[in-house]
Amino acid sequence: MARAGLTADRVTLAGAELADEVGLDHVTMSAVARRLGVKDASLYVHVRGLEDLRGRIALLAADEKTIRIAEATAGRAGKDALMAFANAWRTYAHDHPGRYTATQIPTQIDPELAARAPGPRRAVELTYSMLRAYALAEPDLTDAVRLVRSTLHGFVSLEAADGFAHARPAEDSWARCLDALHALLEHWPAPREGDPS
User: Fold this and answer.
1) What is the dihedral of CA 132, 116, 93, 83, to 10 degrees?
2) For the chain, how many structural domains are there in total?
3) What CATH number has the domain bearing residue 76?
4) Distance CA 64, CA 59 (A)
5) 3-state SS of the chain?
């Protein structure tokens, strides 16, 4: 019998909080059960196992990050939107390192659960929408989306791993990277000869 008050959402949130504290790799079903004050077996009434829990954490994080980005970029365009988008992304990664990691790890997510979670789909829509001011057409628009995601994810991942050993503050490099990203988006290179359109 399921413990009163225990739900899949509550188990997921406990796992997400634990991931932020100790890292996603250290989240186990036993650790989540201890956090909730229940026996391990009680969790399996609500989630199928560790892989399912990680998938649920990833969907929760995608929803949270998307909401932050949507709020930050509302009513903004061009460089202003790009800066707000990027800063909301980085702040979320700093505030919730374990959850952020979960969004980057492929997991077997229940298709029915994924279909009900708006975060991943909305994240793609927000990125394309933010880039609309740069007047890029396909396939350049998709390439630009990939560039933005790669740049932001690369920077915050290196930062989280203490990968910037230089004395220059990461904050200064972040600002210059965003300036450079904006300049590139404004002056997007012409297609190379022979590229498919």
Assistant:
1) 20
2) 1
3) 1.10.357.10
4) 9
5) CCCCCCCHHHHHHHHHHHHHHHCHHHCCHHHHHHHHCCCHHHHCCCCCCHHHHHHHHHHHHHHHHHHHHHHHHCCCCHHHHHHHHHHHHHHHHHHCHHHHHHHCCCCCCCHHHHHHCCHHHHHHHHHHHHHHHHCCCCCHHHHHHHHHHHHHHHHHHHHHCCCCCCCCCHHHHHHHHHHHHHHHHHCCCCCCCCCCC
Half-sphere exposure of 41 (CA within 13 A, CB side): 2
Is 71 inside any structural domain?
yes
Domain assignment of residue 136, given as a range = 57-186
Residue 63 lies in a domain: yes
- Looking at the domain assignment, is residue 21 inside a domain? no
**pLDDT band with cut points at 50, 70 and 90 for residue 151:** very high
pLDDT score for 4 = 55
Predicted confidence band at 154 (pLDDT cuts at 50, 70, 90)? very high
Q: Would you say residue 1 has pLDDT above 60? A: no
* Domain assignment present for 147: yes
Total residues belonging to the chain:
197
| Whether pLDDT at 181 is above 60 | yes
